[in-house]
């Protein structure tokens, strides 16, 4: 625990978040840098139909967007979570044999790891169908993928962003309390005084981090 607090400081956490946003921003600019479909003929006289497939190249969607930014991170995350579960289960077995009170801490860590695995599973469930259909269209042009299937895949990929807060709220108490507070304050337009005190998010202390 002390080693974690030394390595994961607030400054390093903010730097990691900023780096993720910067990489995402630069990755999103790749099609604008030239990896896209060019309109045929003279652009001033050609009417461009506003469709995603008429602008984005499928090799970009498959090789760059799917293989590089989905398959590789997903594989790495699965490996990391498998190692995390292995370490936590080993520690729980050792603490159980030694009848140590710290086993409670590892059980909470295991619960948090399960929540993150659920988020990872929902990400794969929502995004992989669309990417798999893109691969089918790219590697097998003669194969017919129904447009309805594409629409369902696009809908699933968009709804994934809405599922993550619900998962966190369902699995993590502090996140659930904060979400309830936001709903009362900004959606239902109720004052904070009308919210039960147990639902108000408090300051993050060393004790609450362990919890």
UniProtKB/TrEMBL annotation:
GO cellular component: dendrite; plasma membrane; synapse
Domain G-protein coupled receptors family 1 profile: 1-168
InterPro entries: Adenosn_rcpt, GPCR_Rhodpsn, GPCR_Rhodpsn_7TM
One term of GO molecular function: G protein-coupled adenosine receptor activity
Topological type in the membrane: Multi-pass membrane protein
One of the Pfam families matching this protein, by short name: 7tm_1
Residue stretches spanning the membrane: 12-35, 62-85, 116-139, 151-170
SUPFAM superfamilies: Family A G protein-coupled receptor-like
Alphabetized UniProt keyword annotations: Cell membrane, Disulfide bond, G-protein coupled receptor, Glycoprotein, Membrane, Receptor, Transducer, Transmembrane, Transmembrane helix
Family recorded in the similarity comment: Belongs to the G-protein coupled receptor 1 family.
PANTHER family named in the record: ADENOSINE RECEPTOR A1-LIKE, OLFACTORY RECEPTOR AND ADENOSINE RECEPTOR
Designated name of the protein: G-protein coupled receptors family 1 profile domain-containing protein
Species the sequence originates in: Danionella cerebrum
